[in-house]
């Protein structure tokens, strides 16, 4: 049963127990470019209490560096080495886990953030934001030339998805022997400013259906992201808490990594998924309405 937090004493006890605070972003800190009320004050308060703050997002549209730009624009203190996104985790996975040979390329369904992270990891790629792929013209197999050096297809949130990109990815995954099918993450939806939008999982779904095969998913809840963080940051999992809005990614990620978990209800998960007859089998350690609730500690 999750412990419901509501008082300053509850939050004070959390600060005493945990030194490292890992924050999901969409639905916890913001909706699109709209900050959650109180998020800045709480992050500042945690830093004033000498807590280690990390940002762990499945959103692959931005690189760590461009996320730093978003934090700066929103007035949130953040440092690049505190930011871990699924684009970064995917680039590290391709280069250091699957060790894609240097003469091989990745076909990307995704945005600039994914391309920037692959480039920073020295991974060759095609597709992505290439204007030749961003077309609504019918896809012609006769006009398509298969690149035999494509050894993996990496699919992430792509707000310019189209039939050409899906068709090219399908060709590589069915005609290039051993071509790996990778997804940055599989979130079905995400909370944007003003409502829900289809997430990365909805972008890779057509390929999953057409291929009859699931991708290797690299973002939360998989351990790859935590492995990337461990490679850069020294922290004690027993004194670390993961704060998230989605049960099957953020909370499961925390549980898989031996972290404590705090669910907030400002994003995807509803009260009905936490309590009552339709409650999920994924049960966080703690629940609070919003990360802004911790402002009481600064009073
Ligand atoms: O890919 C998506 O669906 C979204 O980018 C993802 O859900 C948002 O990531 P979060 O910061 O909530 O992990
Ligand atoms: Mg989220």
UniProtKB/TrEMBL annotation:
Binding of Mg(2+), residues: 24, 26, 245
The keyword Magnesium appears for this protein: yes
Active site as annotated: 24, 26
This protein's record includes keyword Hydrolase: yes
Chain positions recorded as substrate binding sites: 220
Molecular function via GO: alkaline phosphatase activity; metal ion binding; phosphoglycolate phosphatase activity
Catalytic activity: 4-nitrophenyl phosphate + H2O = 4-nitrophenol + phosphate + H(+)
Textual note on the cofactor: Divalent metal ions. Mg(2+) is the most effective.
EC number(s) stated in the UniProt entry for this protein: 3.1.3.41
Keywords: Hydrolase, Magnesium, Metal-binding
Cofactor: Mg(2+)
GO cellular component: cytoplasm
Protein name (database record): 4-nitrophenylphosphatase
Organism the protein comes from: Mycena maculata
